Amino acid sequence: MDVTILDRLLYIGELFQRDMARAFAGTGFTTARLRVLWTLQHGGPMTQQALAGQLEVTPRNVSGLVDALEASGHVRRAPHPGDRRAVLVELTPAAAKTMTRMQREHAELSAALLDAVAPADRAAVERGVTAIGERLAELVSEAEAAP
Amino acid sequence: MDVTILDRLLYIGELFQRDMARAFAGTGFTTARLRVLWTLQHGGPMTQQALAGQLEVTPRNVSGLVDALEASGHVRRAPHPGDRRAVLVELTPAAAKTMTRMQREHAELSAALLDAVAPADRAAVERGVTAIGERLAELVSEAEAAP
DNA sequence: TATTGTTATACTCTATAACTATA
DNA sequence: TATAGTTATAGAGTATAACAATA
Predict the structure, then answer these.
(1) Domain annotation covers residue A55
(2) B51 CB contacts (<8 Å, ≥6 apart)?
(3) For the segment A68-90, what is each residue's pLDDT rounded down to a tens digit?
(4) In this predicted model, what pLDDT tens digit does every residue of B71-112 receive, in sequence order?
(5) Partners of B137 in the beta sheet?
(6) Among A4, A65, A2, which Cα is nearest to B113's?
(7) Is residue A27 a contact partner of residue A89, using CB atoms and an 8 Å limit?
(8) Checking DSSP bridges between strand A87-91 and strand B75-79, what pairing results, if any?
(9) Residue B107 belongs to some domain of the structure
(10) pLDDT band for position A1 (cuts 50, 70, 90)
């Protein structure tokens, strides 16, 4: 038992990240900025505090990421109606279109990967990967709870 | 089909990385430095050029990582016999012991995760995850080849 | 002339702490 | 007094380019 199932799972994550980095090299996109856009695509316009919460990152960090994305024309800062301290960060129409396309490509990649699995194994793989994710989440949250 | 298999695979990778970062917070270990130690654990003593190649990172970057790991007592720089330009980077005995323990814990975690899969599904999951990794590697290498 | 590693410089992500404007 | 965001400062990872010593 040299290469474990965990090794294989981590390898998939690494490959994916490497491909993302390569695909966006030179475009000004970075993993951290894409995470912001992805969060806005799924959650809609939100304050920087909300973004910081969802990304599990400090508010200061969000300021920098939003600065960069605003400069590159991917997000806008709009006044928050009802709280003049806060701003609402929202995708620009162009960025929303880009994210929709990325979401479609992501789904297509997922389908292509499942296609590599023997048809008879597919249901088991879906169940198994789900179970592994849930178990890992349990183990991690136990580890975080017990210092 | 809202959460795809790819989403679940990426979630597993994120959880793992988050747990690693948490486990080593405050110890001076970082993901990048652990990768260096892991590479030395598997490949034995090697030059910084070789490390840069295996990590897919610039030689300059390796200099910095090895500096930090040398300062913290995890690696040593030894003269290369036969090439006075190069150095051999090797784990210190203490670090080698730590890495062996980590390798064992890694295997135990892998076993615990496979344990979360229904026994009847296990073989299919191993086959399926392997197939997905191979297909993704193909797709990535095609994407890298065709600019 | 080519290779190994380092110095110099710069950018991104990230964090903490102190501060401003509003609630 | 508490919250939203920013300025200030710092450290880690990463890259490119120029340079020294050695092949």
Answers:
(1) yes
(2) B36, B39, B40, B62, B66, B89
(3) 999 999 999 999 999 999 999 99
(4) 999 999 999 999 999 999 999 999 999 999 999 999 999 999
(5) none
(6) A4
(7) no
(8) unpaired
(9) no
(10) low
Q: Check residues 51 to 70 of chain A and report those whose beta carbon is under 7 Å from nucleic acid strand D.
A: 59-60, 62-63, 66
Alpha helices in chain A (DSSP H): 5-23, 31-43, 48-55, 59-71, 93-115, 122-145
**Structural domains counted in chain B:** 1
pLDDT of residue B145: 81
Rg (CA), chain B: 19
Contact criterion met (CB < 8 Å) for A131 and B143: no
Query: Coil, strand, or helix at residue B79?
Result: strand
Strand C, nucleotides < 7 Å from a protein CB: these are 3-8, 12-18, 21-23
CATH number at A36 reads 1.10.10.10
Kindly state whether A21 is in contact with chain B, defined as any CB-CB distance less than 8 angstroms: no
Q: What is the dihedral of CA B37, B43, B44, B47, to 10 degrees?
A: -80
Residue ranges making up the domain that contains A104:
5-116
Decide if A129 is inside a domain. Answer: no
> Is residue B102 assigned to a domain?
no
